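Homework help board

Subject: predicted structure for assignment chain

Our instructor gave us this sequence and asked us to write out the predicted structure in token form, then describe one feature. I got the tokens but I'm not sure how to describe them. Can anyone check?
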Amino acid sequence: MASAEIGAGHVYALGFHADYRCRSTGACCSSGWEIPVAPPAEARLRAALASGALRVDAPGVPLFRSRRELPDGARVVFGLDAHGRCAFLEPGTRLCAVHRQVGVAALPPSCRQFPRIALLTPVGTFLTLSHYCPTAAGQLFREDDVPSIAADPSAFPACEPWEGLDARQAWPPLLKPGVLLGWDGYVLWQEQAVGLLLRGGQTPEAAVAALRLRANRACEWTASKGTLLGWLERIPDQAQPTGVLDFDAAAATWRGVAARVPDSLRFAAPPLGPGDEPALAWAEAHVRLVTPQWERFAWPVRRYLAAKLFASWAAMQADGLTAWSRAVETALAVLHVEATRQCIDTSTPLDAERLGQAFRRADLLLLHLARPAGEDVTA
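My token output:
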């Protein structure tokens, strides 16, 4: 995807995400999350209920609950039953009554967009997925050959009113503190980094180490070295050894991320909280249950890491490429911890099912529970 091919009216996604569609697993509708309903959506739904166009079978469960301090002027959230299921999730099925009976346009933005995560920029809209969604997690295991980055995929139409981090009027990301990367540089770097992470024949740890070295090298640019784009294009990829994960360091990283979960959720059971912290015995369990199988799953893990880099809000919130690449390292550490948790909980070695659940739990913590660094978590 050369810079000449990009444009503000286009949408870009990773190739293995490009044909995503909801398969009604019901995970997002039964996780106990409170979904804000903005006034226009609330008015449409109440009118549909009054006219009979929308029929909901949820005895004893309020369809809407009042809440304060909601975004976008919302006054209510969808009601939940005692098991955390949305009141609009049809009994005995995994189907949303609103979606099925009235249509996707009647859904609140949170429901319409999940698991899509959008970064809106002057050079296009970039989309990745939250792998808390089981369908999105399953996309990581696909075996077909797809392009690294897809332009205007049918699953993510440009006409959709995408919501997310809106950087269309913002300064471009930083190369390093005090030096802008520029939007052309952003596009080139993201394409190079995704290609590096998806390159075959390397472990995820080696791919992340190579990304870190490439970021460090990129930050050596000065005006005396020519154009920034030319410098980025000339940086050679440096092969890295397989490397051995330091599980204690990964556990410390997990704890650092979990510390950014609001106090009100920190000790709640998943999916409202992150779950128990890794214990000392987990390092031995990682060596015994995860490590022997890890290289078998290098491909889906590298895809997961590419999804942590592509369309990442860290590009706009971090102070340069090294911090942006560090977000990918953090995701790998958290994934190792969550894979170990799955193996301990089931007393079985790592396999595709347990890795899929680890992808889900890692993104639950990284994308849905932890707040950005520096943000107040006492609420």
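Reply (TA_rk): Your tokens look well-formed. For the description, you could write something like this. The chain has two domains: 3-20+115-369, 36-113. That's the kind of observation they're looking for.
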